[in-house]
Specification:
The chain is of the alpha/beta class. It is 34% helix and 22% strand. Lipoamide dehydrogenase is a component of the plastidial pyruvate dehydrogenase complex (PDC).
């Protein structure tokens, strides 16, 4: 028996009472749904994508490198400079949209994330998580397990990280080749309007033309002045991921995502850690309440101490039998405070855009602290504040949100625009995660940011929290440390931010990020059903705990289907019922 889900209705047919039987009316994906209720409604919502049609376009494009849409006088519809996660995401979506696409890479496919960032670091963190659990005798005994001892092979751990990066790099390369993306090797430079030159040392340069160009060159570790990097005893995350040594005592300069994750790795492998943080508190980029709890769980019980409100004004690598020397000065007065002597120092002070040599001067574009200026549609702006036609910049190079998946989302958004569909990415819906043990994740505004916005715009903010200690699955794992925090508007139910500290927080955050992206309110998402017993029920309880202030007026009424749609749905229901009776 054919299910009712196979029936599709076009918006145009509904608006006219269903009189016209257009192609849109017969095409799957024409049904609009509101929130998570799955009801056919005539209100802003998500559209079920017609996957078969999009796959057909992708396969046709792959056969001729995107020849579905001709380039005309251009060599390519789209050229992307940089084959990191952002460039890769843009390239795949471009071919899917029928664009003839090339990607230029001067180093290796995968960029920072795959080769020197989030991918190999997760391999190290997987090891640290296992080691931490095996060394927790109380945790093991509570589960009825007995472990005599646990050790590790440093080189084998390093090989695991390197092998993972190689595998993912190969996967990205093969996925682009399979879809027909031209991978051009060399350093890309913009030489004029819609023209790019690329090449590598020892070989002649080549010049190509493109209807559209995306800059996706990423970033490199930022090293403050006065810090001498030798790659052995004073190093950045690029070097640390090779795990060439596990020092007895390591200082980590910076307590953001990178610093926190490496503190998790090093302490699990036996190192003592000292944080050096310029601001007055650790983890300054996190919601303050989450940061305080994270300090109690991730910092205080471990072999970690810290100095806040200080700069590392000078760091000298170890040599001639002397240790690494770190001179600390007061962040406000600049007076010398003390000198640390440690075995190694990891510089985790953030990242700087990699935009030199792009030839931006050829098109009157001036970077701002190295970042390429863009508008909300990722269109590059010139020195006069005008949009540079057909030129976009995504990812770390524009500085809007320096996360790999943000770069990919920006690239997809740009391709949507190139394909004739206006699209603006909501950056507040993009989640972030810190893969410590336990994990931290967040999306949207922190509580101080939300309250500041509320004061400016005149609305009331409310906050609710739930604990992992009340979650059956977390207790079964004996992992009850953690909370989830919801920040929302009491008048409308709009979700402003969600922050989670706890087991698998990085996986749990996506329900909240998708709700923000789709504009789903707490009064709607609270009816979503979660499997029991699962960690997802932490968010289920969180949304159910939200209370809205009583409100009168049209905004308080749920979105209702118009009368023509009700008639169409009633007709379909009667038709299906009649069909079932005939078969009985």
């Amino acid at each position: 028996m054919q299910s009712a889900a196979a029936v599709s209705i076009s918006a145009s047919a509904i608006a006219t009472g269903g009189g016209a039987r257009s192609e849109a009316a017969r095409r799957p994906g024409g049904l609009r749904v509101c929130g998570l209720r799955g009801e056919a409604l005539a209100c802003p919502s998500m559209r079920i994508s017609p996957v078969p049609a999009r796959l057909a376009v992708a396969r046709a494009a792959a056969a001729t490198n995107g020849a579905v849409v001709g380039s005309g006088e251009f060599d390519y519809d789209l050229v992307i400079i940089g084959a990191g996660v952002g460039g890769h995401g843009a390239a795949l979506h471009a071919v899917e949209e029928g664009l003839k696409t090339a990607i230029i890479e001067g180093d290796v496919v995968g960029g920072t994330c795959v080769n020197r960032g989030c991918v190999p670091s997760k391999a190290l963190l997987a090891v640290s998580g296992r080691m931490r659990e095996l060394h927790d005798e109380h945790h093991m005994k509570s589960l009825g397990l007995q472990v005599s001892s646990a050790g590790y092979d440093r080189q084998a751990v390093a090989d695991h990280a390197n092998n993972l990066a190689s595998k993912i790099r190969s996967n990205l390369t093969n996925s682009m080749k399979a879809l027909g993306v031209d991978i051009l090797t060399g350093v890309g430079t913009i030489v004029g309007k819609q023209k790019v030159r690329y090449g590598k040392a020892g070989f002649p340069d080549k010049e190509i033309s493109a209807r559209n160009i995306i800059i996706a060159t990423g970033s490199t570790p930022f090293v403050p002045k006065g810090i001498e990097i030798d790659g052995k005893t004073v190093f950045t995350s690029d070097h640390a991921l090779k795990l060439e040594s596990v020092p007895d005592w390591i200082a980590i300069v910076g307590s953001g995502y990178i610093g926190l994750e490496f503190s998790d790795v090093y302490t699990a492998l036996g190192s003592e850690v000292t944080f050096v943080e310029a601001l007055d508190q650790l983890m300054p980029g996190f919601d303050p309440e989450i940061a305080k709890l994270a300090q109690r769980v991730l910092i205080n019980p471990r072999k970690i101490d810290y100095h806040t409100g200080v700069f590392a004004s000078k760091i000298t690598p170890a040599k001639d039998g002397k240790p690494v020397l770190i001179e600390l000065i007061d962040a406000k007065t600049k007076e010398h405070k003390e000198t640390l002597e440690v075995d190694a120092a990891l510089i985790a002070t953030g990242r700087a855009p990699f935009t030199k040599g792009l030839g931006l001067e050829n098109i009157n574009v001036v970077t701002q602290r190295g970042f390429v200026p863009v508008d909300e549609r990722m269109r590059v702006m010139d020195a006069d504040g005008n949009v540079v036609p057909n030129l976009y910049c995504i990812g770390d190079a524009n500085g809007k949100l320096m996360l790999a998946h943000a770069a990919s989302a920006q690239g997809i958004s740009v391709v949507e625009q190139i394909s004739g569909k206006d699209h603006i990415l909501n950056h507040l819906s993009i989640p972030a995660a810190c893969f410590t043990h336990p994990e931290i994740s967040m999306v949207g505004l922190t509580e101080p940011q939300a309250r500041e916005q509320a004061d400016k715009e005149g609305f009331e903010v409310d906050v609710v929290k739930t604990s992992f200690k009340a979650n059956t699955k977390a207790l079964a794992e004996n992992e009850g440390d953690g909370i989830a925090k919801l920040i929302y508007r009491r008048d409308t139910g709009e979700i402003l931010g969600v922050h989670i500290l706890g087991l698998h927080a990085a996986d749990l955050i996506h329900e909240a990020s998708n709700a923000i992206a789709l504009g789903t309110r707490v009064q709607d998402i609270k009816f979503a059903v979660h499997a029991h017993p699962t960690l997802s029920e932490v968010l289920d309880e969180l949304f159910k705990a939200a209370k809205l202030q009583p409100r009168e007026g049209p905004d308080s009424k749920p979105c209702q289907p118009p009368q023509p749609l009700l008639k169409v749905l009633s007709f379909i229901t009667a038709l299906l019922s009649s069909s079932r009776r005939d078969r009985q």
